[in-house]
Amino acid sequence: MSVDKAELCGSLLTWLQTFHVPSSCASPQDLSSGLAIAYVLNQIDPSWFNEAWLQGISEDPGPNWKLKVSNLKMVLRSLVEYSQDVLAHPVSEEHLPDVSLIGEFSDPAELGKLLQLVLGCAISCEKKQEHIQRIMTLEESVQHVVMEAIQELMTKDTPDSLSPETYGNFDSQSRRYYFLSEEAEEGDELQQRCLDLERQLMLLSEEKQSLAQENAVLRERVGRPEGEGTPGLTAKKLLLLQSQLEQLQEENFRLESGREDERLRCAELEREVAELQHRNQALTSLAQEAQALKDEMDELRQSSERAGQLEATLNSCQRRLGELRELRRQVRQLEERNAGHAERTRQLEDELRRAGSLRAQLEAQRRQVQELQGQRQEEAMKAEKWLFEYRNLEEKYESVTKEKERLLAERDSLREANEELRCAQLQPRGLTQAEPSLDPTSPPMDNLAAEILPAELRETLLRLQLENKRLCRQEAADRERQEELQRHLEEANRARHGLETQHRLNQQQLSELWAQVEDLQKALQEQGGKTEDVSSVLLKRKLEEHLQKLHEADLELQRKREYIEELEPPTDSSTARRIEELQHNLQKKDADLRAMEERYRRYVDKARMVMQTMEPKQRPAAGGPPELCSLRTQLRERDVRIRHLEMDFEKSRSQREQEEKLLISAWYNMGMALQQRAGEERAPAHAQSFLAQQRLATNARRGPLGRLASLNLRPTDKH
């Protein structure tokens, strides 16, 4: 039987770790230096492998494999000498390892051979019992490998070097410890262990017979004379055989005592098996009783669950019975209420029949009211138109009066200027009369001053006449431009008054609609209501009329705005930007108005859908009158529509007022900017003449334009 050296190396590494040496023994690389093996040998036999021998081993060879090989050679040589001299077991050649492979490559196979020799020394020394006990503490797989290694040493040694007596004690003890390492817990395990013990007894008896035969052979060999051998050698062999015989006798006695112990142990185990069987039977009966009790408990549990379910069913039946009583009471109340509703329905039907006769009269009166409202609106429009014309004529009269005053003032100023010019012309004449040499009939070279003075006056008069003509043309152009702006302003005011009139009429119409709605509410409250079709058609017609009027007002405002834009004169960049912003705001407001109209339609559709969905819910379940439900639905729908119309009209009115204010402010700002620019253009940059100053002073007395011109010319007066 051959053992795998690599597997043997791993198991023996595990065995070496039980010695707790200073060096590590976890891998073949740790043992390649030989230091750990030397420490193990020192613990196996300190007298042979002493401290002096340990000092000869290199402690830290490092990566130098030659030092490792040297240490391993010393260890191997000491092992061989110890086996031959102390244990008298010479080592065969096949058991000797190659230390160079161990030191250089850490070969597991060669290392396994070396550790196998160390194992042989451990189980053959004086402390072999201690080492055998240490082996028994290892795992079963490691124990099997160690036992196979020991048997390999026993079979491959020579008969003279190794005897069965040396390892017989270890083999018997190892088997006994192996089969008795675990205690029995169950009856089957105890029986199996008894069979194992009987098999072991048979093996021990066979081994005893083989030892007895070998003992007989040795005795015959001792009794047989040997002529070839010397007396000393014979005596030596005799002593050796006697010692072996004594050992065998001791071993036989020990085996006999062990057999008796095993028999006693077997008897005890048999008694334990009987007790366990008896206990097993008792436990089986108890288990059967427990199973019966468990079945009974299950039946009782099911019965209790069924009883709980029946109690819950009983409680639910009682609760349903109470609910049934409550439902019967509610049915009686509903029947009484239904009877009251039926009576109320009959009364409402009577009132509805009475109100039917009044409906035609109401429609005729409504048509008359609409015709009168149309006539009143036309008369109001005419009155507003005549009022606007009266205001325009009044403004024109005021402007003509102011123009007359301005012309009178200008006439006075021209008279004063004419008188001054006459005075200036009379002064040279006085000079000519005082000095005869200055007479115009005299020769021209007699007096130089008399010739220069009339020339300057003539030049001044010509310059004043030219400037007067230019100013007259400029004033005529400014007057035409002002008249055009005034005409545009009148048209814008006329459009604004028309929009205000339309807005006022819309407000009056809305108030009339509110009055009609209130009258309808009162009539419905007095008469008991109308049918759904008549009220819904009336409300739809009024809503459509209101939306149509809003749309017409929007179109009229758009036309007036376009007309005003056409009449607007060209303005500067800032005014143009302002007008563009206002136009953008107006477009935004128009879009808001269109979105508002779309919301009106959506609200009407949504209200109709809500009315249709709520109508079946409002109808009584016991067959109540449908007319009452329809009247209530109509009232709710009408209130919702009235609230929506009121909110939307308030929004549209505020938006229109804001638009009108923005339009008027933009128009006035544009007029003021144009007037200011015209005044700046008329104001001369150089020193003015006396006539121009007088005219500017006259314009300053007329109004804001004159004041602006006088403010512009005031710094020049100082020059």
From TrEMBL:
Keyword terms: Coiled coil, Cytoplasm, Cytoskeleton, Microtubule
GO cellular component: centrosome; cytosol; FHF complex; HOPS complex; microtubule; trans-Golgi network
GO biological process: cytoplasmic microtubule organization; cytoskeleton-dependent intracellular transport; early endosome to late endosome transport; endosome organization; endosome to lysosome transport; lysosome organization; protein localization to perinuclear region of cytoplasm
Keyword Cytoplasm applies: yes
Localization annotation: Cytoplasm, Cytoskeleton
Coiled coil: 180-427, 475-502, 540-606
Pfam families recorded: HOOK, HOOK_N
Lineage: superkingdom: Eukaryota
Main localization, broad class: cytoplasm
Single GO MF descriptor: identical protein binding
Keyword Membrane tagged: no
Domain Calponin-homology (CH): 6-122
Classification via InterPro entries: CH_dom, CH_dom_sf, Hook_C, HOOK_N
SUPFAM superfamilies: Hook domain
Family: Belongs to the hook family.
UniProt-recorded name of the protein: Hook microtubule tethering protein 2
